[in-house]
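Quick one, probably user error.
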């Protein structure tokens, strides 16, 4: 900016020096002065345009930086929310695992279907339903299509 101002001052000084040539009435000097005057005006306008362009570039740069900062802030907030949600999910899973009653060692999962009962099962009737107690597992008879099967259940109450 200061360089452009310095150029404009030098051009203005040259134009002032050439003004006496116009007073003498020489046609060549007048034509030259007019041409140089046009150059001075053009240089001044050009310097003004450059100042506007640099100002606009600075504004665009500032706007781009603000936009980038806003995007980074939004991304950071989203990541924070995701981390909080994952933490809450992990706590829920831990609580659910602690609340779940573990099955006795060697017991089959509830709902397992067997076509025959293992050897050495004891029969118990609870609430009109016949249960079979075989080691750590409790079975109840059921039909699967036309076939009699045995399904593991929770211990009767």
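Nope, works fine. Designed sequence:
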């Amino acid at each position: 900016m200061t360089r452009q101002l310095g150029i404009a001052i030098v051009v203005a000084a040259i134009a002032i020096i050439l003004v006496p040539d116009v007073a003498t009435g020489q046609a060549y000097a007048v034509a030259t002065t007019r041409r140089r005057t046009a150059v001075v005006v053009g240089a001044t306008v050009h310097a003004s345009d450059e100042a506007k362009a640099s100002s606009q570039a600075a504004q665009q740069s500032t706007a781009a930086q603000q936009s980038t900062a806003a995007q980074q802030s939004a991304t950071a907030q989203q990541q924070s929310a995701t981390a909080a949600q994952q933490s809450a999910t992990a706590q829920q899973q831990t609580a659910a695992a602690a609340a779940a009653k573990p099955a006795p060692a060697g017991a089959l999962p509830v709902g397992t279907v067997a076509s025959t009962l293992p050897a050495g099962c004891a029969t118990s009737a609870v609430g009109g339903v016949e249960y079979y107690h075989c080691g750590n597992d409790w079975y109840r008879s059921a039909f699967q299509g036309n076939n009699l099967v045995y399904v593991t259940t929770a211990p009767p109450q």
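The first helix runs from residue 2 to 23.
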